[in-house]
Design the sequence.
């Protein structure tokens, strides 16, 4: 565990404290919780800008920067979720505060935050759009997986709860799937530009495709068999587990050497 005793770390830890405070106040004091939520977002945004200025490039190169950027994505997606989900804002704040704590923890305590040189292959205009599309999609899918897991674990006697879990998961996946598709497409274009081939059968590419196929299957099942909610929830959660493998295991495991080794 690495404690970051500098300004970068201070902003991350302050943002995490803000998310923790949101969990304690969201149900009883929603206005105060919203203010804390905004403060956490501003701190996350400041941490991203600070890292950007220090590194001299978009902070999306390694695992520390990826999780830092994921923490920045929480509030914008929270605002969008409030528009598409019929769920109490306090409940959404609690879910998003938990996700915010989870994604900032690796940035604050796990991964090294020393500056790294940006490899030539990443010095391309596709670097930002490609990674950002995936990061936004991952937050959407993480939020969807919460509802999918809830639909599997919590009692489904109430039809209202069943409709809420299934509908919320679907709307979030429907919002994240185009971003997932965009990330896959831009990655293929970038691969052609950087390595001379649209597809290199790299482990990261393969797992990204697996994620896309699982969510495509989820949308197909939702369309063809709308009543099979258990299957939808299972595909929802499975898709996110594959995202975790794509983001962590493929990047960090020595069993999967490949072209996408920058994140390690």
Sequence:
């Amino acid at each position: 565990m690495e404690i970051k005793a500098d300004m970068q770390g201070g902003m991350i830890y302050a943002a995490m404290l803000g998310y923790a405070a949101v969990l304690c106040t969201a149900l009883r004091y929603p206005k105060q919780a919203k203010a804390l939520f905004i403060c956490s977002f501003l701190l996350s945004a400041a941490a991203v800008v600070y890292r950007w200025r220090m590194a001299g490039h978009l902070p999306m190169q390694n695992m520390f920067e990826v999780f830092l950027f994921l923490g920045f994505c929480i509030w914008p997606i929270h605002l969008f979720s409030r528009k598409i989900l019929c769920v109490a804002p306090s409940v959404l704040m609690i879910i998003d505060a938990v996700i915010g704590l989870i994604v900032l923890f690796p940035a604050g305590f796990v991964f090294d935050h020393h500056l790294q040189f940006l490899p030539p292959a990443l010095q391309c205009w596709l670097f930002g759009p490609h990674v950002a599309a995936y990061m936004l999609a991952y937050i959407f899918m993480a939020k969807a997986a919460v509802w999918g897991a809830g639909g599997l674990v919590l009692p489904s006697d109430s039809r209202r709860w069943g409709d809420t879990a299934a509908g919320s998961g679907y709307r979030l996946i429907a919002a994240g799937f185009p971003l997932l598709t965009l990330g896959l497409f831009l990655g293929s274009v970038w691969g052609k530009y950087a390595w001379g081939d649209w597809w290199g059968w790299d482990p990261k590419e393969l797992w990204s495709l697996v994620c896309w196929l699982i969510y495509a299957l989820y949308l197909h099942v939702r369309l063809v068999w709308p009543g099979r909610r258990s299957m939808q929830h299972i595909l929802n959660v499975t898709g996110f587990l594959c995202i975790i493998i794509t983001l962590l295991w493929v990047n960090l495991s020595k069993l999967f050497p490949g072209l996408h080794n920058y994140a390690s």
